[in-house]
Design goal:
The structure is a homodimer of 200-residue chains. The first copy, chain A, is mainly alpha-helical. Helices cover 63% and strands 4% of the residues of chain A. The first copy, chain A, contains eleven helices and two strands, in the order αββαααααααααα. A two-stranded antiparallel ribbon of chain A has the order 1-2. Chain A is globular. Chain A starts with a helix and ends in an 8-residue tail after the last helix. The mean pLDDT of chain A is 96. At the A-B interface, helix 1, helix 2, helix 3, helix 7 and helix 11 of A face helix 1, helix 2, helix 3, helix 7 and helix 11 of B.
């Protein structure tokens, strides 16, 4: 006998298994295969608990950060991954695609949980709280590490240069100011090693 | 300029990327490819935040549960996955292999963090706190869901029957008593559908 509540919760857990099949543009370091959203989300959780001190927020609610990180990409099950350096048309439709996905996916849960999970995801998207800003910063810093350790794989694929990567890293200034110097040092090393163009 | 502390933290984050290449015996539901430890760990995080109410512990420290779940399998980078239904020889050496792996991997971190992460992992392994027991329960319930939705893939591979699966689910009684009935119902359904042998 399974209660209707638990049935809905199980349906959600089973449905989001599909996040393991949404592939990103970054390569994993050891295997050099494309990273999927589920393992990326785990890697962000890991990075968040290791790097929390760099948020510069002694009151940071790390549980909320982890809830955000766990949930932040599930909308991509329906909406697909919108690559960091994709074209304007893709980015223009991203918001609507992801809102519809959030309606459907969080709507699988019991109502109270659907509301609280959606609120967490909305808070992440709105980037107004320290937790949302730190979660976004980690979501930029982890792909930087992967690019650094895979000779700039996704930068080369999208033919981007230093300026675009710096722009991409902007959320670190607000969300994890303690990581900004390291980010700059890594980018300089990548340029020196030829993984990233200095121009543009 | 990167501080020595942050350098060690980054080295750890980069090293554990390898968890994405440790494969389990379970299949993912949609793709039917083998699940890796990193995406499994994310799926447990997700299940933990959805199912926390079934721990039967109003004071459950969910942040600690998530830390445990995020870290629980990293030792398998060195020690390998020890399948649920593997032989006695593999299980006999598991403890030592995993202890050595924990020494090396957590030892990459700055000392204070190495100690606190190791303490979290030890607490998980010792199964004495409500958080550790709930984390273990989720670590049994999630593979049950995958087996259910993949026609008993890993049960068939190891030729196990109902009794061994029930034994495998024992941690639910302590760690997530609110999930026991659902677990039983799912197992009964799997037997009825021919995914699992009733005998042994």
């Amino acid at each position: 006998m399974i209660s209707e509540r638990l049935e809905r919760q199980i349906r959600f857990i089973v449905e989001v298994d599909a996040l393991k099949d949404v592939f990103r543009q970054t390569q994993n370091i050891r295997s050099r295969r494309m990273e999927n959203d589920a393992e990326h989300s785990w890697h962000l959780c890991l990075a968040a608990i290791v790097l929390a001190e760099y948020a510069g927020q002694p009151q940071l609610d790390l549980l909320k950060v982890l809830r955000m990180v766990i949930l932040h990409d599930v909308v991509e099950i329906d909406a697909g991954d919108t690559p960091a350096y994709s074209d304007a048309a893709q980015i223009a439709t991203q918001h609507d695609r992801e809102q519809r996905a959030a309606d459907r996916l969080f709507g699988l849960l019991p109502e109270d949980q659907a509301r609280s999970f959606r609120a967490i995801w909305d808070e992440f998207e709105e980037k107004r709280t320290a937790e949302a800003r730190f979660a976004h910063a980690v979501d930029r810093f982890q792909p930087l590490l992967l690019n650094w350790k895979t000779e700039g794989h996704s930068w080369r694929k999208f033919d981007v240069g230093k300026d675009r990567v710096f722009k991409r890293m902007a959320p670190l200034s607000d969300g994890a100011p303690g990581l900004v110097e390291a980010m700059q040092a890594i980018i300089e090393e990548c340029i020196a090693k030829g993984y990233l163009r200095r121009a543009g």
